[in-house]
Sequence to fold (156 residues):
Amino acid sequence: MESTAKAICILINHDTGYRGTVNFEEQDGKTKITGTFKNLPPGKHGIHIHEFGDLSNGCVSAGAHFNPFKKTHGGPADEERHVGDLGNVEADSEGNATFELVDHLVRLTGEHSVIGRSLVVHADEDDLGRGNFEDSKTTGHAGARIICGIIGVCKN
Fold:
């Protein structure tokens, strides 16, 4: 059995009150990603790992989706997808949401680690690259970035 690596991302938008905590746990070649969110607008919101942990200009400076293998945008179960494509989180009528995914591309160790990168939740639903919009194959047409945080190492 491989050792376990863990990371955490705290997402806060002080202006809107949107907030979330996402935990990452890599073991045996897969990473379990679990999250809880509060005060989000009701509905589905795209959730992605972005290439930079730079939030100096808010979520805008996080760069594009983390895509070290130069793939087109897709859903988390798709073979053709960015490493950072995690699908959607769905907030209920109270703005609460939970998220859980076990992923084989997201890594906390090695050359393509997501540690130090950012996690971004978008205003709109991610179409998983299946929409007919100009940006479906690059961003999933998920809209503006409404909340973000930096993925950091946490104690095992």
Q: What stands out?
A: The longest helix spans residues 136-139. The beta strands are 5-12, 19-27, 30-38, 43-50, 56-59, 85-91, 97-103, 118-122, 145-153. The CA atoms of residues 9 and 151 lie 5 Å apart. The radius of gyration is 14 Å.
